[in-house]
Amino acid sequence: MSPVQRPGQPARPDGGVQVIARAAEIMRLLRRSPGGLTQVDLMAELGLARTTVHRILGALETAGFVTSGRSRGRFRLGPEIARLAEAARHTLILDLRPYLEELSRTLNETVDLSVLEHDQVLFIDQVVAPQRLRAVSAVGVMFPAYCCANGKALLARLPDERISELLPDPLPALTPSTITRRERMIAELAEVRADAVAFDREEHTVGISAVGSVVAGSPWGIAAISIPMPTQRFAGRESELAATLTEMTSRIEATFNVSPG
User: Fold this and answer.
1) What is the pLDDT along the chain (261 residues), one digit of tens a residue?
2) 35, 60, 77 - which closes a domain
3) Contact by Cβ (8 Å): 167, 119
4) Same domain flag for 134 and 194
5) Whole-prediction pTM value?
6) Could you tell me the residue range of the domain that residue 29 belongs to?
7) Is residue 189 domain-resident?
């Protein structure tokens, strides 16, 4: 039988919601540290006692959310995280597919759905428009995030310090239009944050341009919707495409009752 907290009695430091919050913070720290962290590292980061961190790590490891394996005392995210991420991604695709189809019909253009994987964007769904000349990647393909509209939209959700960690300087040039200076990229991402829309003007592929924007929120986390097309159809339509896309992302967030922030 669980003990009852009496009025005026301080909450148990390791009880209920607080334990869940601490476990979540441990997993966030491990996500930002692919090489793993020791128990001592986690104690220092969280300011918690050894026994508390040890107990939470033990519970997370038993559930498969973290693993120490053969890493000599260094903890990493466990296999259960990947399974949960896959389930969330499947939910994301099912939830957003009707909106992608509507957007594609409205503009008669291909529409992509993607997520950020470290410094790359992974295409997880796509609605192909019935155009003879069209831009088509493929589900499962990954692009460098810094030179495509969906990637910029996703990178703009990160703090500048994290962007600097992810992106080298200089950035590899894929086309003559690719932004190669990290400082300039960070400045452009600030504009993306302000405008809620990102552009790729032949920065990934010569002859192809795109507009992208983010949808964010539970249960599927953060994803980007982008509309790529031949530059000859893109030129002069940037404002129309951006307005149509951001209207759709706002509708999605309103429908699922999630905050765009």
Assistant:
1) 334 344 444 444 445 688 888 888 888 888 778 788 999 999 999 999 999 999 999 888 888 888 887 656 899 888 887 777 776 777 888 889 999 999 999 999 999 999 999 899 999 999 998 776 666 677 889 999 999 999 999 999 999 999 999 999 999 999 999 999 999 999 999 999 999 999 999 999 999 999 999 998 766 778 999 999 999 999 999 999 999 999 999 999 998 875 544
2) 77
3) yes
4) yes
5) 0.72
6) 16-77
7) yes
